[in-house]
Amino acid sequence: MRRKLIHWLGLTGVLALLSYTAAVVFSPLAYPGYNWMAQAVSDLSAEAAPSRQLWNQLAAPYNICGVVCATCVALFVSQKRVSTRLFRVGIYLFMAMNWVSALGYGVFPLTDGGKEIASFQEMMHMVVTVAVVLLSIASLVCLIIAGCREKSVRGIGLWAALALVLMMVGSIGTGIVPPQYFGVVERFSVFAAVGFNAVLGMYLFHGFKGAGEIKHGYGCLPKTEGKCDELS
User: Is 212 within the bounds of a domain?
Assistant: First the structure.
């Protein structure tokens, strides 16, 4: 397959995952007393956190690359009419989630990690979190259903199912496990979306090979042409 620029931009999803992982792993070094097993990842980037500067440096590629990858994936599946409409809607919702996350958390960062939510900014931070979670779930459910219906995108459906399970483990687990293990289960949830974005990026890098067998009326050329658009 002859790769174009948009295919290579799929690698930004992997770069975003590596950047986010580095921020989560190394930022605690600048936060004396931080307990990763008990505290949320967002505590590391809170305005009052001593690790905020290091976090911003390590997570800078993540902030840009995550949105770039999700947007390029959405543009590609839209232009090539990849798979079914439900599949594409799932991709669009996932792109929207990444934009809401990037803009929302940028405008309304957590003021002080580990404290009671009281200020307007902190409440808006929680509103953004709810929007991100709902968009993530809606996106993954659409992709899972699309994967069950269409064999060509079943692999993506399975990855979406895994990401959804990890999100549920994180969301439900934070309310069940003892406080000293809050950070452990919370990380399942935060890494699920970032990891799934990297997976979609790799599918884009390979041109969604195997996911482009679309029936006439859903992305094929007119019947006079006699064949569907190529993804490569």
Answer: no
